[in-house]
Amino acid sequence: MGENWALGRLGAYANIWEPRLSAQTTTLDAQSSAISLIPTASEMEARPPTGLDRRRWIKMEVVSVLEINDDVVGIQVSVPGGGKVELPVTSHIMIRGRDPQTSKNVVRSFTPIIPDQVECPGIMYLVIKCYADGRMSRYIRTLREGGEIEIKGPVRSLKYFKGKYQRIVLIGGGSGITPLWQVAEAIIKDPEDETRICLIYQNRFEKDILMRSELDEMAAQHPKKIRVLYMLSKPPEGWPGGKGRLDRAVLQSQLPPAELPGSVIMICGPPGMIDSLAGPMDEETRVRDGGLLHQMGFSGEQIHVFE
Ligand SMILES: Cc1cc2nc3c(=O)[nH]c(=O)nc-3n(C[C@H](O)[C@H](O)[C@H](O)COP(=O)(O)OP(=O)(O)OC[C@H]3O[C@@H](n4cnc5c(N)ncnc54)[C@H](O)[C@@H]3O)c2cc1C
């Protein structure tokens, strides 16, 4: 079953999955499993020192806290060392904080973003969505300019390199968009990286869509490389994007066929969405199985969950 069949099936969106002009690695190659998930010294050396440490928590100064909207804050953190804070693609940092409601420590992952227009050495930029019932969210709400925050990292759960995949499907929910944005941005910025991207971003309301102008601009400027589908479970009247939840029918209309080599699906979002797509995690083996994507024929190797 070849690419042509896929094109027929994918209809209007087929241009993204068209056969590529140059050959790239088409399978999840054997070397990838042997590759260290920790950014290598040379990868980190290629960038100015970040002052981050993946083994221990470092206290850093909160330089500013900006209310982006009702439930999203932009936080600038001063990172010792003074270099531009740019993490290797697919890596993130961890924040440790104390939930003011339970007084218990909570640790969560966050992906710093690199705003295009500002280049302030030694500053890490975080965009954080705060959930009313969220333990880390409640801690984030307590942060004030001049205060401290504990950060560890970078951490990486998957190694990405140009040519590893032909097609990447990024499925995000709520605040899970930032790691997916990081992957998309790295591919878009590299003119030699011909990977095609389909980003499906699920939210409840239109106002919940994070980084929308950046995503729209990316899709408008690189229509052959990326397309974006916003799904809303509570869409406004006349909403042109996807409506409802990510079910089998939506996935079938958007994803390349599971048998097509060189495809991977990366997911980051709320636990319910991850369980439904990638299946619940077996506590012993730490492997997810039995989700919608498995039922559609995708193997565990083709599904990567940021968590
Ligand atoms: C690799 C990685 C990078 C991330 N980067 C960022 C980032 O840059 N900015 C950011 O804001 N978040 C990011 N997240 C999500 C973040 O780690 C937390 O999951 C999120 O802040 C909620 O934590 P909490 O303790 O406040 O909520 P919890 O106490 O864990 O959950 C509270 C409620 O929020 C819901 N919820 C939790 N996560 C989500 C979600 N993603 N979408 C919708 N509902 C959710 C839960 O279902 C629950 O109802 C990232 C996650 C990963 C795995």
From TrEMBL:
Its EC number is 1.6.2.2. It comes from the Eukaryota. One of its GO terms (molecular function) is cytochrome-b5 reductase activity, acting on NADH. Its cofactor is FAD. Keywords: FAD, Flavoprotein, NAD, Oxidoreductase. Residues 55-161 form the FAD-binding FR-type domain. Gene3D superfamilies: Nucleotide-binding domain of ferredoxin-NADP reductase (FNR) module, Translation factors. FAD binds at R108, V127, K129, M136, S137, T178. Pfam families: FAD_binding_6, NAD_binding_1. It catalyses: 2 Fe(III)-[cytochrome b5] + NADH = 2 Fe(II)-[cytochrome b5] + NAD(+) + H(+). Belongs to the flavoprotein pyridine nucleotide cytochrome reductase family. This is NADH-cytochrome b5 reductase. It comes from Ostreobium quekettii.
